[in-house]
Amino acid sequence: MTATTSRGPYAKTAAIRRRIVEACVDAFGETGFYGATMKDVAKRAGSSYTGLLHHFPRKEDLLTAVLELRDERSSEYLESAHALDPSSNPVETLRGMLAVIVDNELQPGLMELHCVLSGEATSPDHPAHAYYTERYRMLRQFFGKAFRALADRGELRSAIDPETLATMTIALINGLQEQWLFDRDSVQMESAIRQFLGSAVPALAEPERG
User: Fold this and answer.
1) First-to-last CA distance in the chain?
2) Nearest one of 110, 114, 109, 85 to 97, comparing CA atoms
3) Domain boundaries, the chain
């Protein structure tokens, strides 16, 4: 068997799994983890129920795959913006995070997924509780390092300490995401976040020029 033919089944399996996960993003985003059913996900993905169970035996397995997809997309944008090291490259870090947020704004399914699941996951019994607890901890550290680096360089224009500013930034982003889902015509997420960051970081006060 050649290398090409041996890769065929694996590529097909990966494509099927990806289609199921994409369908799950919509299902979880609309009705949450508890509201969505495996049969509904299978129908959305154009798969049989048996076929779905072959790839994802439990709904918790689907949830894990969906959260991994979300993190994968965010990491891709941060890498493309060279913003993975907030301590050494704080301005680009913040610009990279803004790019991630704007990209998610163009994908309502992912934003709905985040808002619904993060709300559900406040319950300690929710299967994504530990995931979101760690995610918010990492985000606070991520923004905190960026703001701390800017403060050390004298480039932070804020009386608020970097760690608290990081917490406030995340709260602003989450609140804007929820408001945007209610009123997509009036809520300008990118502009609001850019103005907030620009008020604390002068280098971000003006839009980037190409």
Assistant:
1) 50
2) 85
3) 63-204
b/e sequence 42-52, b meaning 16+ C-beta within 10 Å: bebbebeeeeb
Angle ∠(71,73,78) on CA atoms, nearest 5: 90
Residues 77, 90 contacting (CB under 8 angstroms): no
CATH class of 63-204: mainly alpha
Residue 106 φ then ψ, to 5° = -85, 0
Tokens of 1: 């068997």
Please, which pLDDT band fits residue 69 given cuts at 50, 70 and 90? confident
Instruction: Give the H/E segment covering residue 118.
Output: helix 108-120
**Cα–Cα distance measured from residue 114 to residue 141, given in angstroms and rounded to the nearest whole number:** 20
Pairwise CA distance, residues 156 & 80, whole Å: 25
Which residues are CB-contacts of 5 (< 8 A; sequence separation ≥ 6)? Answer: none
**What would the mean pLDDT of 187-206 be, rounded to a whole number?**
89
What lies within 8 Å, CB to CB, of 100 at 6+ separation is: 73, 74, 77, 78
> Do 53 and 67 contact (CB within 8 A), yes or no?
no
Q: How far apart are CA 81 and CA 83, in angstroms?
A: 5
